[in-house]
Amino acid sequence: MPPRTPPSARATSRLDPRKPFVLEVRELGRRPGSMRAIRGDVPAPADLSVGMAAIPAGASLTLDLRLESVVEGVLVSGTVTAPVTAECARCLGPVSDSVSVPVTELFAYPDSATEQTSEEDEVSHLVGDMLDLEPVIRDALVLDLPLSPLCREDCRGLCAGCGERLDDLPDDHTHTTTDPRWAALVERFGGSPEKE
Length: 196
Prior knowledge:
Layout: H1 7-10, E1 22-24, E2 35-43, E3 48-50, E4 53-55, E5 60-70, E6 73-87, E7 94-108, H2 113-117, E8 124-125, E9 130-132, H3 134-144, E10 176-177, H4 183-189, E11 194-195
């Protein structure tokens, strides 16, 4: 088992209060039950994507959060809503949607029992009187993005022969193909090639 990082060493870096996801919680004090609501829009950070779906960098993320002081730290709960752009996994057409994800995270006080008894990556930590929501929001949004987005549930995809969208082609759309193994016989004796 690797040696534990002492709690005092975890908070050596300072957070930049000018960043949109860094919040100051000094006004909550250490009074369990005191709360503060956070509602507003912040720009999405870069690289919020998975496979064929992404949240555009700089897009407006809508935060509806509650910060509540508890015995062990500050509990952040609420929802984050973001626009999603994607390509349909079947026809490669554009897809626009939105996701709304729940967020619940405890940011432990530096000298709390939670801080003392947990590994560094098990729980989020307050740094001074500030907390950084970006990793929590990033994880929640990326995990909720669709792996195979669809423009419609009944999307038929692309034609294997010409690559056109099957929804844009007539129902009797086919391609004439000749199996290369039989091509010489078809040329010599004539005959009808196979239809797809």
